[in-house]
């Protein structure tokens, strides 16, 4: 298995497990503990950094290492989307219900109509949560690749 595939699997398992714990424990609904969702960032950074370094060991140049960071983000991101969606559709469908109700109440209190409510509630759905996780994994992996990639040294 390639280093990029291993990293994507580590990301999917780590972020998926964290999302399952947050959803099943009911912590997504509580603003005081919902920040724990950011614990996925160190998982993504460590996995992407290891994959980029391993890709350098395989002979990839600087641009190839940057692409490796993006590839890890895409592979891991797609896997995280599927897992997050399944968690919120199958395992814990009620996990986002209070979050959706709160977003709807805020939109209505601000004088918003149906369009404002739809916008506010959209990211509180299983699809919205999955989309946010994908963006998080992709951007974090790409930035990690940028930070970790090694430029070749001039011979001399």
What does this 3D model show about the protein?
The protein is mainly α and 156 residues long. The chain has one domain. Helices cover 74% and strands 0% of the residues. It has helices spanning 3-25, 40-57, 62-91, 97-109, 114-122, 126-148. Helix 1 (3-25) runs antiparallel to helix 2 (40-57), helix 2 (40-57) packs across helix 6 (126-148) and helix 4 packs antiparallel against helix 5 (114-122). The longest helix is centred in the middle third of the chain and has 30 residues, at 62-91. The radius of gyration is 18 Å and the shape is elongated.
Instruction: Say how many strands there are.
Output: 0
Given as residue ranges, the uncertain stretches (5+ residues, pLDDT < 50) are none
What is the rounded Rg? 18 Å
Helix content: over 70%
N- to C-terminal separation?
Answer: 36 Å
Question: Approximately what portion of the residues adopt beta-strand conformation?
Answer: under 5%
Q: What does the average pLDDT come to?
A: 87
SS-based structural class?
A: mainly alpha
- Number of separate helices: 6
Order of helices and strands: HHHHHH
Main sheet characteristics: none
List keywords for this structure.
mainly alpha, elongated, 156 residues, 74% helix
Topology of helices and strands:
Elements: H1 3-25, H2 40-57, H3 62-91, H4 97-109, H5 114-122, H6 126-148
Quick structural overview:
With 156 residues, the chain is an all-alpha fold. The chain has six helices and no strands.
């Amino acid at each position: 298995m390639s280093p990029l595939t291993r990293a994507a699997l580590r990301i999917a398992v780590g972020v998926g497990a964290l999302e399952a714990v947050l959803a099943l424990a009911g912590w997504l609904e509580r603003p005081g503990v919902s920040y724990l969702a950011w614990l996925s960032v160190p998982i993504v950074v460590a996995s992407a950094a290891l994959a980029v370094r391993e890709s350098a060991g395989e002979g990839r140049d600087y641009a190839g290492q940057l692409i490796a960071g993006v590839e890890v983000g895409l592979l891991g991101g797609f896997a995280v989307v599927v897992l997050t969606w399944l968690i919120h559709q199958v395992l814990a469908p009620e996990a986002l219900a209070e979050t959706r109700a709160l977003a709807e109440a805020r939109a209505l209190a601000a004088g918003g109509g149906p369009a404002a409510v739809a916008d506010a509630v959209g990211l509180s759905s299983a699809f919205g949560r999955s989309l946010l996780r994908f963006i998080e994994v992709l951007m974090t992996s790409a930035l990690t690749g940028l930070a970790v990639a090694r430029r070749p040294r001039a011979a001399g």
